[in-house]
Amino acid sequence: MRETKHVHLIGICGTAMASLAGMLQAQGHRVTGSDAAAYPPMSDQLAEMHIPVMQPYSEANLTPRPDMVVVGNAISRGNPELEYVLDQRVCFVSMAALIHDEFLQEREPLVVCGTHGKTTTTSMLAWIYEVASRTMPELAASFLIGGVAENFGTSFLVRLETKPFILEGDEYDTAFFDKGPKFLHYFPDAAILTHVEYDHADIYADLEAVKTAFKRLVNLVPRRGRIVAFDGSANVTECVARAFCAVERYGFEPSSYWQMKDFKGGASTKWTLLREGKHFADLELPMAGEHNALNATAAAAMAAGQGVPAVAIVEALASFRSVKRRLEVRAEVNGITIIDDFAHHPTAIRETLRALRSAYPDRRLIAVLEPRSNTLRRNVFEADLIDSLSGANEVALASVFKSEAIPTTERLEPQRVVAGLTQIGIPAQLYSDADAIVTGLTPRLLPGDVVAILSNGGFGDIYTKLPRAIAAQNSEAENGE
């Protein structure tokens, strides 16, 4: 696709799809897109790039006829634009295949994979390369991240003159016509594998199916390549066991190739990193949570193995500014802190709440959860969800997002989650939607509270409605109303 074309993206507001839209525009293509709903941060990024987002889906969005259509993996048969594309034989392709064909040929793809930590680790690795490139220009990297990295203010960057290309490798399926994981299209020169757990219950039958996907990824890394893999998971061990390339494990284990020692937590984290038992660097990260320190270690290990100096790694991690919707402070109102986190799995929820406990040790922690992801909407994770939410002092639970799309035999029953939490002494309440949560929760919030809003979607714009309601209540109290 070397000549300039009109490319239309169906499902453009997905994090990777919005990034691809920007990448294509940067190459000179005319880019349009459509989606059912647009919400920050990707809607903001698209607006800044002046890429039009048409809502709702309609055949009219494909007039004039585009030269190529990228079909997002959330798009299914029955979508009016997809049906038009098939009927009219418009050229179409998946996001992952187009990324490979247009951007990864003759590059050095460094792919970050795993059921948790991908976006943050990819952002850290990209920032390490950016800092290193100030003194070593050949390390200036392109990147594609499944979120907006705050150090860059964007989710993507394409450089034509250098080879490293850092990208997040998603294990979710590719498109309605390609049910394999997206990361199998990226053919990594080197890869990070953070965690392997059962996730995406809508497309993977069980943990064995998830492990099979990651084993296929491992099998793509060439002999000259390298895999940096977490050393605290039997599932990860199984997945990398038959790699043809070098495998470097990282974690707290004494046997780890990259061993973390003397970990100190809090609002920020510090630890010493050893490489094959020898001191490599003393690292500091301005983020809470052991899981974020592990992510940083994975990024440091990958960068070091690719020739990035330790001094650049230390500087980059110390100045890392996180990712939008990852422990992001959205507001401070009347002494109440509102946190936004892209929670999609019980393990992610548990680690988020653990990190907030570390960052705000003496404050009441209230978890506000929307079961929205295809994983959280299913009852297979019900017991795990209760356990992960027990890290909060109180829980406000919204109804299952689009519950009608989940078979009743598989659907999460929020009332059982509420009952399970109540049984172990955690006050919990079920609300119909975001507005009901704002109405019910606001009068009970006190100065010093930390409210963690957990969702992988727009959640009825609760991120602005709740702070606004708190401010309005405070104003009324001051005026004696």
Whole-angstrom Rg: 22 Å
Summarize the main sheet.
10 strands, mixed
- The count of domains is 3
CATH-defined superfamily of the largest domain:
Mur-like, catalytic domain
Fraction of residues in β-strands: 15-25%
Low-confidence segments, ≥5 residues, pLDDT <50?
none
Helical percent range?
Answer: 25-40%
Number of helical elements:
14
Instruction: Specify the CATH class of the largest domain.
Output: Alpha Beta
What is the distance, rounded to the nearest whole angstrom, between the alpha carbons of the first and last residues? 64 Å
Apparent shape: globular
CATH architecture of the largest domain: 3-Layer(aba) Sandwich
Question: How many runs of DSSP E, i.e. beta strands?
Answer: 23
**CATH topology value of the largest domain:** UDP-N-acetylmuramoyl-L-alanine:D-glutamate ligase
| Average pLDDT over all residues | 93
Structural class: alpha/beta
Spatial strand sequence of the major β-sheet: 8-7-9-6-12-13-14-15-16-17
Protein name: UDP-N-acetylmuramate
InterPro entries: Mpl, Mur-like_cat_sf, Mur_ligase_C, Mur_ligase_C_dom_sf, Mur_ligase_cen, Mur_ligase_N, MurCDEF_pg_biosynth
Keywords: ATP-binding, Cell cycle, Cell division, Cell shape, Cell wall biogenesis/degradation, Ligase, Nucleotide-binding, Peptidoglycan synthesis
Domain Mur ligase central: 112-303
